[in-house]
Amino acid sequence: MTNAAHDLPDTGDRQNGAVHVFVYGTLRAGEINDMMRAAERHGIGAPVYIGTCTVGGRLYDFGSYPGMVPGVEASVTGDVYRIPAALIPVLDEIEAVYPGEAGLFVREVHDVACEGATYPCIVYPVSASAVSHLPQIPGGDWVAYRRAREASAA
What is the residue range of the signal peptide feature (predicted)? Predict the structure, then answer.
């Protein structure tokens, strides 16, 4: 799913180094790993928001972050951004995705329909076996779920 010659996923315009990403959890705007802040901290150009949409899958509660298992039986809410390719290693580090190492998250490319267009997007899902003991997030929206959980705990 990556272009070995450029070490970039085939997710966008490689000539100017732009790719697309679908984020559904802590990488969303205002969340603890907000991509905008991560890009700024590393001196990388700001991601460009495309829109909010849903993709097929189920979202699970890992406590301080969610994990998505792709599929068609439910939907997960997230945001599509156009990002500079230089941001990919930063996102990989946040998600603990390292070449040749097995981890909780993996980097995949999925087609995501958003705002009337389809984008090949980087997505960071987890395996179904990683969530077998975890509660599913009703409605598939991490931000709404986290806010409701924090409000009920207060």
Answer: none
Please report, for the domain that includes residue 71, its CATH number.
3.10.490.10
**Residue 109 near residue 1, CB atoms below 8 Å:** yes
Q: Domain range for residue 138?
A: 18-153
**8 A C-beta contact, residue 35 and residue 26:** no
What single DSSP character describes residue 146?
Answer: H
Q: Which helix (H) or strand (E) segment is 121 a member of?
A: strand 117-123
Write the pLDDT tens digit of every residue in 120-143. Answer: 999 999 999 999 999 999 999 999
In a domain, 11, yes or no: no
The count of domains in the chain is 1
- State which amino acid sits at residue 7: D
Closest C-alpha among 94, 83, 75 to residue 26? 94
